[in-house]
Amino acid sequence: MKSPIKPPFKATAKLPSAGRRPAFPVRLKPDMDMQSAAKSVAAYARPAWDTGKSSIKKSLQSILPGGVGLDSQAVRASMVHKLTAQGVSDAQVLAAMGLVERHHFVDTALANQAYEDTSLPIGLGQTISKPNVVARMLELLRHGATGKLGRILEIGTGCGYQAAVLSHLATEVYSIERLRGLHDKARENLRTLRLPNVHLLFGDGMIGYAKGAPYAAIIAAAGGAAIPPAWIEQLAIGGRLVAPLQTASGAQALVVLDKNPQGVRQTVLEAVHFVPLKSGTS
Ligand code: SAH
């Protein structure tokens, strides 16, 4: 999965009053509750004009001499800082991204790239999206909600990274994967994190998961030629679906579907490059 060609979104983070900004690094611990994490992030977030790439590089270099020190909260905080500079402004999304250790989900050989803005292979020809794309989709999914989302459905568990981030943003997360190898990998990756609200399912996500419906939100990490009707059926009234979708030209774009009592409204956003949505299991 590659990033959108040019995200049309802008940084809207408010500049905190000078005295309140904590010193770098902002402390984000995996066991931190979301409220404290969101507070730390909100205090740390700077608008795009205040964030030069070189400063992030400098921080990373001092934290990661020779690619070590990935457990450091500072590296994740730096990733969050960069996301803010790229225009992500939802404090809950930033906090959740700051809490989950992305390097825990990729092969050891790739761990030193885990916090860079790049997609990475996760095996069986699949990839984990760039942090920027994950954050963008989660921000669209939350749609400025004040609290946590209710029950949500994720199509394409992959390595389980996004499911872990989602666990901080929703009360229950149902995540389906069609490849047994990846389903098992995600189960293994998530085991030590003990996230009781994440439910991993092996199956064809094109038919959704009716038992958990209706969902407050549905998010897909793989794109097909059409949005499967089951997803729309299983979305609650007032719910939102975010997914990549093939466009007429054969390219892919991010789409948002809002289901309301009058019907479904579709909004087509920027170009994206996700792996294909396939039917059946393997
Ligand atoms: N969110 C994942 C990204 C996984 S990549 C992560 O954080 O790692 C997309 C995944 O969608 C792949 O693992 C692919 O196997 C899966 N996929 C494709 N079609 C699917 C389908 N019909 N049902 C379930 N999973 C599907």
Description:
Helix 1 (34-44) crosses helix 4 (91-99), helix 2 packs antiparallel against helix 3 (73-85) and helix 3 runs antiparallel to helix 4. The model is unreliable at 1-25 and 45-69 (pLDDT under 50). The protein folds into two domains: 34-99, no CATH class; 120-276, Vaccinia Virus protein VP39 (Rossmann fold), CATH 3.40.50.150. A seven-stranded mixed beta sheet has the order 5-4-3-6-8-9-10. A two-stranded antiparallel sheet has the order 1-2. The chain contains eight helices and eleven strands. The two termini are 21 Å apart. With 282 residues, it is of the alpha/beta class. The protein has helices at 34-44, 53-63, 73-85, 91-99, 131-142, 161-166, 180-191, 229-234; strands at residues 120-123, 126-128, 149-155, 170-177, 198-202, 215-220, 222-223, 235-246, 252-260, 263-271, 275-276. The chain is globular, with a radius of gyration of 18 Å. The protein binds S-adenosyl-L-homocysteine.
Keywords:
8 helices; 28% helix; 282 residues; binds S-adenosyl-L-homocysteine; seven-stranded mixed β-sheet; alpha/beta; 2 domains; 11 strands; two-stranded antiparallel ribbon; disordered N terminus; single chain; globular; Rossmann fold
Percent of sequence in beta strands: 15-25%
Bound molecules: S-adenosyl-L-homocysteine
Helix content: 25-40%
Architecture of the largest domain, CATH level 2? 3-Layer(aba) Sandwich
Structural class: alpha/beta
The unreliable regions are 1-25, 45-69
Q: What form results from the Cα inertia axes? A: globular
Biggest beta sheet summary = 7 strands, mixed
Helix and strand run: HHHHEEHEHEHEEEHEEEE
Question: How much is the average pLDDT?
Answer: 84
* Number of self-contained structural domains: 2
The CATH superfamily of the largest domain is identified as Vaccinia Virus protein VP39
Briefly note the CATH topology name of the largest domain: Rossmann fold
SS summary, helix count: 8
Major sheet: order of its strands? 5-4-3-6-8-9-10
Q: Tell me the total number of β-strands.
A: 11
State the end-to-end distance.
21 Å
Regarding CATH, which class of the largest domain? Alpha Beta
